[in-house]
Design a protein that fits this description.
Length: 403
Amino acid sequence: MAVPDWIWFVFIFSFGCCIGSFLNVVIYRLPRDKSLVTPPSACPACDRHIRFYDNIPLVSWLLLGRKCRYCKASISPRYFIIELLTGLVFLGLFILYFQVNLRDGIKLDAGGGWFIYLLHIIMFGAFVAASAIDLEHWIIPLSICWLVTAAGFIGSAVGVYIIDPALIRAYSLLPSASANTGALAVGATAGLVISLLLLVSGLVKRSYESEISEDEKGIEQKNSKEEIAIPNNEEKSAEPDWTSNGVNHRLEACREIIFLLPIIICSIALLWIVREVTPVRAWWENFSQHPVVAGLLGSLWGYFVGCGLVWSIRIFGTLAFGKEAMGLGDVHLMGAAGAVIGPLYVVVAFFVAPFFGLAWAGSQMFFKKIRQIPYGPFLSLGIFVVIILHDWIRDYLSFVFYR
């Protein structure tokens, strides 16, 4: 017998809230370099362990009246918000994919659709955590981005064993490279290896080497031992001071350009080789279009395109304004998204995100006179919009490029 829809809804929403509860641990502990596993949850005010019945997503926060059971210290509403938001995202994607049939390809292969759904909730769960950290600390931990990137690479490679490769290409369910974009991806990877070797050898200098690392900007080190309860008098991270402080930001941007040059040169060089050298072209077209290889290279090229878009804005903005523009966390976040959704869709998401950012920046400047904004949440919103409007965007791109 078929399972009633309402049971699926309750299960998916509850599962999302449980994941949101774990994301709260990530949001609190990861920027503070604490273990995500130990010690068990405890109140930072009285150091009493949080019992399982006081740690039920959504319910415990409401029943406890937003206070610790023992010392009555206030519990931040952020925990309730993250749990609710994650549950709604998981449920919303489930309804859109399997009830409303917003994605034609998923409708045609419901079994493979679950695989796509899993990849997307991994990505959005990670981006919820990254966005919350960015809003509070003005950083995006790179480990979160690397997790999503790895999921994109693996999912794109093994997805062809779960979903018909012809269906993947027809409905852009997963990234898939052509022979040319595959060559660009391999060349860029070779260039990245060269750049990293030059960096390790010291021949190329790391940008902002003398400054605080990207993962430490804006973090206030606290002595509290746990994430569940947050006293009312806890200080919040202020807007970071990213003024010059004696740093030549344009010089640092030039160092990043030097780091990127081997990536650009190698990708263009390999593309030229596979297009102009006939024996190589014949072999490469056959090899690169094997479904597993095409999927992996498509995800890899999506990663480089996502990173390149934000990194180019970072470099040009720094050169133009003489101070650091955007963070490397944003670069890696967009690269991770590209690994999951592919190069074309990550470009669209990149141009959607500023609409959210400008609205937020306008309100902040009007009410709080804050000029810098954490951009990770708006990149995440742009990616979410592209996921929702995926088929419409696909049809429009097909009309523009193949008419």
